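Regression test case RT-17, inverse folding.

Input:
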């Protein structure tokens, strides 16, 4: 841990987290780890975690190292020992919690997607802009930006190694909904999740496409489909509601499959409820420069567990990435003689690669959980310096606008639909310092 000139430890940053299951566990890991790996100007302290189920949230606090537990997120925001609020709840509560935290003078980290609708995201972005004028920091948790190989890919694009971009392809494939007997969870109801695979997985794909290219998507043509339209209800749940989840660990503590581990065929009721979100989304798009993009997001790809794959082709070269081999980046330099040119494997584990200066010797790979330590690191630097981090709430709003355009296009038989932009067009995604010198996004080392 970095020491001040007087030898004292750095000041603390009290963190309060709302939600405590899958994403809550991942974020907790990041907060616990960041200060043990990187020299930080502030020391994160896990002050309190909130969730409605008192027993479950106390157990989560004990498991993940939080000093206190609250059963009301408003009480967590009001705590004097909390300076930053981390929102890890389902999307239907993001706006209320984040806006309240910003208005209370707290810094905010909010999980992706930013909200369930463009209107909610606009409210959040406006609150973040007003809070920034008061010196508060806000950021969206698109953690895959913090994969070292993807941060390095951004450097290659920025340095012109691919030249003018032509094509972007991103697919995000999972299979946890293939079984039609899988029960109806909050992720399958529009009022709680906003959308299905589109918001859950497609939001990551859209953000990465815009982050890596430094360009915005300006239009899309889309198809979506719900393959299984009814699913068994959990015990105690009524059609149109998820009350049965409270008997597991509370909906506000759930994310994805949390609370459902170990369910067998006898753990669901004989009643069925309506699935009101998409199982899969497929769309093409156009970037501001005219480059073409294609996207696929599904939770119905049998055999694919967490297959996030992308490829970018430019006039001077190409790069490709697979999350299931996340320490590797494939790069082709098209300016080399054809006799020796071709894709080569770059093992992204060198100390000069983004984020790697704090970890292990070359060749010792990182994993999914490390992206959350990098996210915490970048946010702490932003809070300490007062420099706005990326992705901002405005970036999250832009992704939300793309998702809305996708749904509009799909409702209109894949007609090309322009992505709504405000009167003042957002600037291209800036090149974060973490990409150039292994420091945090938009934050000097």
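Golden output:
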């Amino acid at each position: 841990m970095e020491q001040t000139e007087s030898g004292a430890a750095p000041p603390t940053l009290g963190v309060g987290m709302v939600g405590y299951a899958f994403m809550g566990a991942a974020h907790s890991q990041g907060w616990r780890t960041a200060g043990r790996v990187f020299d930080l100007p502030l020391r994160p302290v896990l002050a309190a975690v909130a969730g409605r189920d008192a027993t479950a949230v106390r157990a989560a606090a004990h498991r993940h190292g939080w000093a206190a537990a609250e059963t009301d997120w408003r009480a967590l925001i009001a705590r004097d020992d909390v300076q930053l609020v981390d929102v890890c709840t389902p999307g239907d509560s993001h706006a209320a919690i984040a806006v309240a935290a910003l208005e209370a003078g707290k810094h905010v980290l909010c999980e992706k997607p930013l909200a369930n609708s463009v209107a909610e995201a606009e409210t959040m972005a406006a609150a973040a802009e007003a809070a920034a004028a008061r010196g508060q920091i806000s950021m969206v948790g698109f953690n895959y930006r913090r994969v070292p190989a993807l941060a390095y890919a951004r450097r290659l694009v920025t340095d012109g190694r691919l030249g003018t971009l032509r094509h972007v392809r991103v697919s995000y494939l999972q299979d946890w909904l293939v079984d039609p007997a899988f029960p109806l969870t909050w992720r399958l109801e529009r009022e709680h999740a906003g959308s299905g695979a589109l918001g859950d997985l497609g939001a990551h794909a859209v953000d990465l496409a815009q982050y890596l290219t430094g360009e915005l998507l300006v239009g899309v043509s889309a198809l979506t489909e719900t393959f299984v339209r009814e699913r068994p209800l959990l015990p105690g749940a009524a059609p149109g509601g998820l009350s049965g989840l409270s008997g597991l660990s509370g909906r506000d503590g759930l994310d994805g499959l949390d609370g459902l581990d170990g369910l067998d065929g006898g753990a669901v009721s004989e009643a069925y409820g309506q699935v009101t979100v998409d199982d899969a989304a497929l769309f093409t798009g156009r970037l501001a420069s005219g480059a073409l993009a294609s996207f696929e997001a599904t939770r119905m790809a049998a055999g694919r567990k967490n297959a996030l794959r992308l490829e970018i082709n430019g006039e001077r070269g190409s790069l490709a990435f697979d999350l299931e081999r996340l320490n590797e980046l494939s790069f082709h330099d098209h300016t080399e003689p054809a006799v020796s040119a071709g894709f080569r494997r770059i093992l992204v584990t060198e100390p000069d690669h983004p984020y790697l200066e704090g970890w292990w010797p070359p060749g010792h790979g990182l994993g999914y959980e490390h992206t959350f330590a990098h996210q915490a690191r970048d946010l702490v630097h932003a809070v300490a310096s007062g420099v706005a981090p990326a992705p901002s709430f405005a970036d999250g709003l832009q992704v939300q606008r793309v998702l809305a355009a996708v749904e509009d296009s799909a409702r209109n038989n894949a007609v090309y639909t322009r992505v709504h932009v405000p009167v003042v067009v957002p600037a291209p995604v800036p090149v974060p310092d973490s990409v150039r010198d292994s420091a945090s996004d938009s934050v000097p080392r």
